[in-house]
Please model this.
Amino acid sequence: MTTRVGIPRALLYYQYYPMWQAFFEEFGVETAISPPTTKDIVTSGCSRTVAETCLPVKIFCGHVLSLADKCDYMFIPVIRSMGKNAYNCSKLLGLPDITKAVIPESPPILDIEIDANKSKYSLYRAIYSLGRHFTKNPLRIEKATKKAWKIYLAYRQKMSSEGLMPTQITDKMCDKRHQVDLAENDSPPLLNIAVIGHPYLIYDDYINHRLITQVQAMGAKVLTPEMVSEQALDAAMTSLVGNPRWTYEADVVGAGGYYLQTKVDGIIGLAAFACGPDSMMMNIIQRRARQLKAPFLYLTLDEHTAEGGMLTRLEAFLDMVKRRKRGQSCA
Model:
C-alpha cells in the first residue's frame, strides 16, 4: 500500500508545494492535498484555536483537520529563517506543536526545521532525518533533495519569466477539478494593479473573496510578487529597509518597492488582522506610496470580513485610479 503524506493547502503551500511533491515522489510516496478553503474548513479551524490566533493559522488547522483521516503522515515544516538574522512569525514556528495540541487525531507529523542561520550540516541533517522515514539509503535522499531544489528553482523562474501566479501551476498539479480561472478579460486591461502580501492571502479565494478575479473583472491586469525575480525583490527591499528582519520580507516590502519603482497604476496590500509583521511591512509601503503620490489600498482580512464591504472599497479604489490616469493623460 502506498504511503500518503498530507500537505495542507495553506500558508507555505503556495511557495513550496512543487518542491515538496518532487521530494516525496522520489521515494514513491503519494502527496494528499487538502481542497481549497471553504466555510467548513474555516469554521473547523476556528473551533480548535483560541480567538487571538491569526486567521491564516486558523485556516491551516482547518486544512489539517480535512486531511487527518486521509493520510499516513502530516507534513508541517518549520521555516525558521531563510536569511541571516531574518526570522519567521512565532505562530508559524510553532505550527507542529499547535497542531499536536489542538488536533490530537492528526497522523504523525513530519516537522523538518529549516534555519539559514545554522550550519549547512544542520540543514543536511534535518533533510536526512525527514528522508529516513521512507528510505535508509542516503544516496536516495540526496538525489531527492537535489531534484526538489531543481524543481523549486524552475518553479520560481517560470512564474517570474512568464508572469504566472502560483495557482496557475499548482492547481494543475493537484486537482484539475479545483482549478482557479485566472484568465483575464478579452479586452486589453485599462490598468496595471499590483497585489502584494503573503501568498496564503493573495491566492486563497475564500478568505480574500476572489480578489484577483474581482480586480480583473474591473478591467485591470493583476501583478503579484511571484512575477518578479528574487534578485529584483531583494534589491527593492534593500533600498527601502536595508537588511530584512522578517523571513519573506522581500515578498511584501520588496514587491511593494519594486512595483512603486515601475510605476504601476495602483497597489493593493493584503494583510491578516492582528499580524504584527504584516502591519509593519505594509506601513513601510504605505508611507513610501504616499511620498510618491501613488494610489495604495490597504485591506485587512479576518474571518469576519464581508465580501460586500471589500468589493465596495475595490470599486471605489479602481474608479479613483482610472480617473487619476485619465487626468494624467489629458494633462
In short: The domain at 182-330 is CATH 3.40.50 (Rossmann fold). The first strand starts at residue 4 and ends at 7. Confidence is low (pLDDT under 50) at residues 176-185. Residues 79 and 114 are 5 Å apart (CA to CA).
